[in-house]
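Marked as duplicate of an earlier ticket. Keeping the data here for the record.
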Amino acid sequence: MRKFLAIISAVLLAFLVTGGIFAWQGADLSNDGILGLFQRTKDTTPQLPQTDEPVEELNLSYEERLEKGDYYFERGFLTFASNEYVRAANLEPDRIDPYLKLVRTHFELRNYKKALFNAQISLQINPNHLETRLDMIRIYIKLSDFDTAKNLLDSYPISATPDARVLYYQGLLSALFGNHDLAQKYLKQAQVSSADIELSSRITIVLEAYQEFSFTQAAEDLYLSELLARSFNKTSEYEMAIYLLKETLRERGDLRDGWILLGFAYLNMEKYQFALTAFDKAYSLDSEWPTTQYFLGVTHKELAHFEDSIVYFNLALSNSFEPQLVVYRHLADLYFETQDYEKSAEAYEKVLEVSKDDINSFIRPVWLYLDFIDDPKKALKLAETATLAFPDSAMSYNLLGWSYTGLDDGEKAERNLKKAIELDPNLAAAYFNIGNLYTRQNRDQMALDAFQKAYDLDSSGSIGNLAAQAYNDLLKETLSN
């Protein structure tokens, strides 16, 4: 169950070497809702548009193809964006813009060989395009061809105004190859030159590794390697982290934290079998360390080894892993996948014990109690708690109305669902739920109208699909009577 990582949330990488813990970037803490009714647990990639072009779009111009590609790129439809840029390049093969956009798109898709191919074409068109030369350096780093990346950096034109990005990569590669004095020199120059907040943050992270090492008297060079590898992980330079850690672990294979750092890098690159091997090695060195147990839980989950994942997450909890919130969310999803709905609901309630900051955290346990466990009283109790915590939220009243429907209290159900619609006239879930209520009450035309409204508000989403199905089923039933 490979997930597209949008790299969406920030990586929380804590201070392993001194006893801290990580939190895996794939642990989604947002708890946003599917169907407006329950939490998303599956692939969160945007729904792709249809591949067949309308007839009127077959003869789009070069500029229109680029514009269409940009439209797809901005919305995360990267493959479709790539197709449009290729079509634009076919129309004007001597113009550089489509190839530059293809470099960016394939880089985001992690298809680095295609990104490199288009970068090479870009340089054939304009050999002096410095941005493309920098892109090629980044691509070779992603391909773990650090020697070629360094050669390109060494031949990069020197300008009167230093490019902080070039200095940054010169610093990283110098660190990678063990020239630490030069690495710090470049990084400090980059820090002075950088006007980009994110780049400045990355530079600081690597410099802090050197600073920390300098504070540690008589520390081994292997310790510096671990500190740098950790900083590479924190700056998303996973290929560099892997290179450095492999060198370190060849020399000392008993470094638990080194194996964890290696597994973490592979995990972020979605190379789950490699991650599993690294975390298993860390576990063999110290089976009680909760960080290792947590990451074994994450890795087994990504590999769809749900039972093993549950075991390791529970071990992490028993050994006081923090934050507990992310573990309970994982467990709730896993128990649902294994159809242990009671434990899934219990895990979601544990999430609520830790944090009630998000109304969406209430949605899935309410849904479980109503549709899987058949305990509407517990659903209502949670909905009432949600309303106390979020008295002005339309979703709170939607949950109340939904729960009262499960209790066959039509009057309270309708009142609360109408309140939800009053607070948010665009909440498709409330229209869908009130449609279901009206269906139960044989108020067929009102139900059809509610389903139609839910569909209109969410025609391309899951609520819209459910509403369309409910509308069609009810319409067939009424026509057959």
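See parent ticket for discussion. Residues 1-51 have pLDDT under 50 and may be disordered.
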